[in-house]
Amino acid sequence: MKSRDSARFSFALAVLAAAVATLYGASKPAAAVTGAAAALPRVEARSDDLVAVAVVRDDKMIIHLSRLLDNAPVRDAVMTVVLRGAAHATTAETDGSYTLQTKDLALPGAAAVEFQINQGAAHENLKGTLEIAAAGGQADDKSSSARQLWWWVLNFAVCIGFLWLFSRRRKSAQS
Fold first, then answer.
1. What 8-state DSSP symbol labels residue 30?
2. What's residue 62's pLDDT?
3. Does the pTM of the predicted model rise above 0.85?
4. Which residue from 104, 64, 73 is spatially nearest to 87, judged by alpha carbons?
5. Looking at residue 25, what is its pLDDT?
6. Better-predicted residue by pLDDT, 140 or 41
7. Cβ contact 73:149 at 8 Å
8. What is the rounded CA–CA span in Å between residue 159 and residue 140?
9. Burial class (CB in 10 A: 0-12, 13-18, 19+), 166
């Protein structure tokens, strides 16, 4: 009977190891995608007619401007971005987006952003807030990922231990 309990315990440990390996392997790419998405600061600003969505990479901002009515890109506008009190002209790209390159985008912290759009005689201001994280944020993400892995290992170990003790108690009650 002892060999049977030993075999069950070995099987439970193997299941635990497989579950931890699966969880760690499955969470690693998701964490990398989440980290990549979180690493890109984003701002969204809208008015009654327009919506501007901007993504920042290093010192470059890519802005997509579209109409709310049909989500069509606005290509024939002149856009100026007011960031940290300074006005910056944007460059219209062939895909319908607008780009802005300035060192102000690399500064960490919250910044008010105003998109000034001139389209023919129409003029609109769209306001939003851009939150740029400090460069040291990645170390915290790695330590929390390792902490989460150990938390899962501990949870599985406790569950397997309770199941093993329960099966031993049940067997001794049957005897």
1. H
2. 95
3. no
4. 104
5. 57
6. 41
7. no
8. 29
9. exposed
Over the range 23-43, which residues count as b (16 or more CB within 10 Å of their CB) and which as e? Answer: ebeeeeeebeeeeeeeeebeb
Domain boundary assignment for the chain? 2-37+137-174, 42-132
Q: How many CB atoms lie within 10 A of CB 75?
A: 15
pLDDT of residue 164: 87
**Whole-number Å distance between alpha carbons of 28 and 22:** 10
Q: Which CATH class is domain 42-132?
A: mainly beta
Query: Hey, is 84 helix, strand or coil?
Result: coil
* Cα dist from 27 to 49, 100, 143, whole Å: 40, 35, 14
Whether the per-residue pLDDT at 81 is higher than 60: the answer is yes
Closest CA to 116 of 87, 94, 74: 87
Q: How confident is the model at residue 65 (pLDDT cuts 50, 70, 90)?
A: very high
Tokens of 83: 């960031």
Element (H, E) at 31: helix 2-39
